[in-house]
């Protein structure tokens, strides 16, 4: 599986309140949530994002609230992958559980700029910056998480154990 | 190799002799909780796995974020969890009027106890670590899986040990200590890790101080915060819960990533400036700055809405009036706390000073309702997050503080030192 798209770049500590502010959490309709994605950090995000685009950020991406609405709104808005130096732990779990690919890679977070065209190979963890012709190796998922992802998320994994 | 307190609780719940940091385990859950934001989204996912929850005594719903319902959509969400709770015959469903903010009501009602393995679909679920439990926040799919199966996978965390010594000064609370700590280690300083609090200084902290500190472990990125069980904890547990509890303690030779020593006597009243809980400034640093004029004060939340917080705020506000340019909201975190405030005359003090007293709700903390801010407004808040737009407009600013600093600021109209209220 691969992702290919252009990059939206953000800094440290992008919190779930800016990814999807609580004022929109009276709904859990994925399309509606997606229409407000990133509104408090980048009001133009929803207008500009194309299916397949990627988010690249520095450390502690997704810190704050446990709202699964955050990875869900990004995935539904068309984001194919989030690359960050590090992720906040609840966001990390939530992203895996709903099937939003995420990769920890400090080098890629530094070496990729807004607007770059980037390709990610999820099987190998290779991140290729087509614009700058540079390549990075992302952290592969531990085996257990690969099993979760391969099963199609936590719910399907749980049901497969019955 | 020895285990941390957290690792011992996790090992016991995974049916293992021992666990090590980094190990992936499946642990049995004692309490699985969701609220009116995360709960409704979980219900259809639960049904994909099971018609019935795994244990009607262990699955808990607390409608508290947008309640009393702020609009039609939130009313529909509350209705969905209310009907689910009835259909499943849940023992613990906390309806408005008999309820409060989730992380205040669960310990108060005796739903959570020492030694347990607890998940909640709310990031501040780490609060119950104050009781010596492993307790952590998760998202919707995880909580749904917990409700259906009673188990969840965890990566065993490593830990940072915080050795607390000494006794805090008269206007220094758990809030000042935890903001001081987050300022020291950073908002990702404990990422994926446990924050294990130890040391003689803990004996000088009230249970409410400990709840506040464990509550904000997530603001340092931690998986959980945890306190040892001492006489005070056991007294609290005996008063509040009928559950049998188990006391765990870290092994003597437990491994820690880092040991941080904190002399509580040296901690000053401390405020987190926008836009990160780790952006800590002491009251002395603030007094040396241009005054930070404010528009709003919020005293409440899962962090600081308990009876000790109410008493401390009232002691400052007694005989004073709120600055004419400031709006103050006091939100006791549960009905029981609210009633105790009435009994002790605290509500009279708040209302006489010019504060609005709201019914228990998370409302203002996450810009939900009852206290949403306009562009350019500034708020001193006893809540836990000061992110961009957290309490309303993206151009509003939040300063996180203790109830005493918040109360002193309400009187002064700017961020103020509670030590000097009498001088005004």
The helix/strand order of chain A is: EHHHEHEHEHEEEHH
Largest interface: A-B, 37 and 49 residues
> What is the gyration radius of chain B calculated from CA atoms?
20 Å
Residue stretches of chain B low in confidence (pLDDT < 50, at least 5 long) are none
- Roughly what is the average pLDDT of chain A, rounded to an integer? 94
Largest β sheet strand count, sense and barrel closure of chain A: 7 strands, mixed
C-alpha-based Rg of chain A, rounded: 15 Å
- The termini of chain A sit apart by 28 Å
Number of alpha- plus pi-helical segments of chain A: 8
Arithmetic mean pLDDT of chain B = 97
Overall shape of chain A: globular
Task: State the end-to-end CA separation of chain B.
Answer: 57 Å
- Beta-strand portion of chain A reads 15-25%
Number of strands of chain A: 7
Helix content of chain A: 25-40%
Topology, number of strands of chain B: 18
Brief synopsis:
The complex is a heterodimer of chains A (162) and B (424). With 162 residues, chain A is of the alpha/beta class. Chain A has helices spanning 16-19, 30-34, 45-48, 69-76, 89-98, 106-111, 143-151, 154-160, and strands spanning 2-9, 54-57, 81-84, 102-104, 117-121, 126-129, 134-137.
Please provide a written account of the structure:
The complex is a heterodimer of chains A (162) and B (424). Chain A has 162 residues and is an alpha/beta fold. Chain A has helices at residues 16-19, 30-34, 45-48, 69-76, 89-98, 106-111, 143-151, 154-160, and strands spanning 2-9, 54-57, 81-84, 102-104, 117-121, 126-129, 134-137. In chain A, strand 3, helix 5 and strand 4 form a beta-alpha-beta unit. In chain A, helix 7 crosses helix 8. Chain A starts with a strand and ends with a helix. Chain B is α/β, with parallel strands linked by helices. In chain B, 32% of the residues lie in helices and 18% in strands. Chain B contains 14 helices and 18 strands. In chain B, the strands form five sheets. Chain B has a five-stranded parallel β-sheet, covered by helices on one side. In chain B, strands 16-15-14-17-18 form a five-stranded parallel β-sheet. In chain B, helix 6 (174-185) packs parallel to helix 7 (207-215). The termini of chain B are far apart. The A-B interface holds A 13, 15, 17-18, 21-23, 25-28, 40-41, 59-60, 63-69, 86, 88-90, 93-94, 97-98, 142, 144, 153-155, 158-159 and B 24, 37-38, 40-41, 45, 48-49, 65-66, 70-71, 73-74, 77, 120-123, 125, 137-142, 144-145, 148-149, 153, 155, 187-188, 191-192, 221, 223, 276, 366-368, 372, 385, 387-390, 394.
